[in-house]
Every structure is written in C-alpha cells, then in structure tokens.
Design a protein that fits this description.
- There is one protein chain.
- This protein has 265 residues and is an alpha/beta fold.
- It folds into 2 domains: 149 residues, Rossmann fold (3-Layer(aba) Sandwich); 85 residues, Rossmann fold (3-Layer(aba) Sandwich), CATH 3.40.50.300.
- The chain is built from 10 helices and 10 strands.
- The strands form 2 sheets. It has a 6-stranded mixed beta sheet, with helices on both faces. A 4-stranded antiparallel beta sheet has the order 2-1-4-5, with helices on one face.
- α6 links the parallel β7 and β8.
- α3 packs parallel to α5 and α5 packs parallel to α6.
- The longest helix is centred in the C-terminal third of the chain and has 18 residues.
- The structure holds adenosine-5'-triphosphate (ATP) and magnesium ion (MG).
- The site of magnesium ion has 2 residues, from α1.
Length: 265
C-alpha cells in the first residue's frame, strides 16, 4: 500500500521562478490498485513520481510504502521496490549491453549475491519465455545490444526489467507517448497484461483520456500541484471523455490546457 500525506514541493523558493509543483497531495493506494493520472501540462504529475522515487526530497509531508516511511530514503534503495518507465525509450536500459545482460542486471537486483552479468540457464529460459509472450521478436534478440532495438521493443523490455524483481509499486510516466500508435497500443496491451497477471500496484500517467478511463480501476486528475478529481467505481464506469472535460472546466473555471490530451494523440 502506498500512502502519501500532505506532500509539498516548491521549486526555486524565494526567487522569481518560485513554483509550488506539489501542493498538499494526499493519496492512499491499496495493493493491486491500477490508477491512471491525467492533468494539464505542468500540473505536477511527473513531479509526484519524482518525489515517490526519491529524485528529490519534498519540503513537507510523508510517503509510506507498505508502512515504511520512504520520504527521505536514498533513491537507489527505493529503486529495488519501485519500478518506473518514462516516455523516453532510451531511459532505463544500458544501450551498450545486450538484452540478456540488461535483464540479468534487473533480475539479480536486490539479491544478496554480487551483480551477475550472466544468467543461469533456467533464469534465461524464464526471461526468454516472458519476452516471447510480448510477441515483439525480443526472444530472438537476447544477444543484441539494446541500443539497436526499436523504441517499442525497448519499452517492452524496460517493462520486463522494471517488473521482474517484484516491485511493490510500478510507475508509468507516459511510457507509450513517444511510440507510433500501433506500437503504443501493443506496449499498452503488454502493460495491462503484466499489471493484471502480477497484480502490481500501479500509477500510470497518460494524456489519453479514453484509455485513462478504460484502463485500471481509478482515475486521478491533477492540476497545479493538487489532485482535483479522484474517480472510481460506478461513477467512473459511467464517465465519458466529454463528462470529464465538463467536470474539469466546471471546477477550474477554464478549459483544460493540454494539447496532446485534447488532440487525443
Ligand atoms: N527540478 C525542477 N526545478 C524547477 N522546476 C521544476 C522542476 N521539476 C518540475 N518543475 C516544475 O514543476 C511543474 C510541474 O512539472 P511536472 O513535470 O511535474 O508536470 P507534468 O504534470 O508532468 O506535465 P507534463 O504533462 O507536461 O509532463 C512545472 O511548472 C515544472 O516546470
Ligand atoms: Mg510529465
């Protein structure tokens, strides 16, 4: 379970650029929740993820994961419990290492023995099976350098790397946004299957309102560092994109400002 209490972060405090990116975030995520996050540009969505992964420390508030206070825990310690994928397929993998070597690093992460570059045969077979299930031709490219893979193949592989060591939390920051539509759909499909099969507690930022409402069991809307809508259950089931836009402008007194969201790309 993820518990966030009164989380606050102001960048460049005391300067003309002062900006409160997180303004009192409260969020409780029971195990197995799959939450989609929408919001205008600069709403604080990625900043929320950065606070959770430990890229910076918040000014106030607390983050607990399974009861443990991780608010000020070093980033590399949290990395064992939290998997994250970004929009950029180049992030999260080592391009000069092979698929097998990258997977070996992720797979042995957090275990007691020293980092093993080579996988035991049974582990290699297990990972090859998982790659094969993605239907992206990755199982035949175990010895290929990751830098040579397509963006979609890299995201699928990064997803496997992020989830293979049983994370307590999976964070997806527009991880399909840089892919062409067909590949994005494929990677999203793999994501949904992985989350479901492994019952991963997941937060997914997306600019696609349709998939935000269709995927997972709960949808948050962020605006100016706050969570302004938190939708689940029947209310969410009934909601269409138009309703969401109406709710947004009703509350904010203006239209939503996110080009990609509105263009539905
Ligand atoms: N390290 C930083 N230093 C200064 N300002 C920052 C920093 N990180 C984020 N910000 C600011 O905080 C605000 C929130 O940014 P954030 O990246 O969280 O937005 P977002 O909701 O992810 O938007 P987008 O949809 O464009 O990705 C923005 O105004 C951004 O410029
Ligand atoms: Mg962002």
């Amino acid at each position: 379970m993820l518990e966030i209490r009164d989380l606050e972060k102001t960048f460049a405090r005391g300067t003309v650029n002062e900006h409160t990116a997180l303004d009192g975030i409260d969020l409780t995520l029971p195990d197995g929740d799959f939450v989609t996050i929408l919001g205008s540009n600069g709403a604080g969505k990625s900043t929320l993820f950065n606070a959770i992964t430990g890229a910076f420390w918040p000014d106030r508030g607390a983050i607990r994961l399974d009861g443990e206070n991780i608010t000020y825990q070093p980033e590399h310690v949290r990395a064992r419990k939290i998997g994250i994928l970004f929009q950029d397929p180049m992030k999260g993998t080592a391009p000069d290492m092979t698929v097998a070597e990258n997977l070996a690093l992720a797979y042995t992460h957090g275990r007691r023995f020293p980092l093993a570059r080579a996988l035991q045969k049974k582990d290699a077979d297990f990972l090859r099976d998982r790659l094969a299930a993605f239907h992206m031709g990755l199982e035949d490219r175990m010895k290929m350098k990751v830098g040579l893979l397509s963006g979609g193949q890299r995201q699928a592989m990064t997803l496997l790397m992020a989830t293979v060591a049983e994370p307590r939390l999976l964070l997806l920051d527009e991880h399909t946004a840089a892919l062409d539509p067909a590949t994005a759909e494929k990677v999203l499909d793999i994501t949904v299957r992985t989350v479901r099969e492994r019952r991963l507690t997941t937060l997914m930022i997306t600019h696609n309102m349709q998939s935000a409402l269709a995927l997972g069991n709960r949808t948050l809307m962020m605006e100016r560092g706050k969570i302004i809508l938190d939708l689940a259950g029947e209310e969410r089931d009934r909601l269409r994109v138009e309703d969401l836009l109406r709710m947004y402008s009703g509350r904010q007194g203006r239209q939503l400002d996110n080009d990609r969201m509105l263009l539905g790309k």
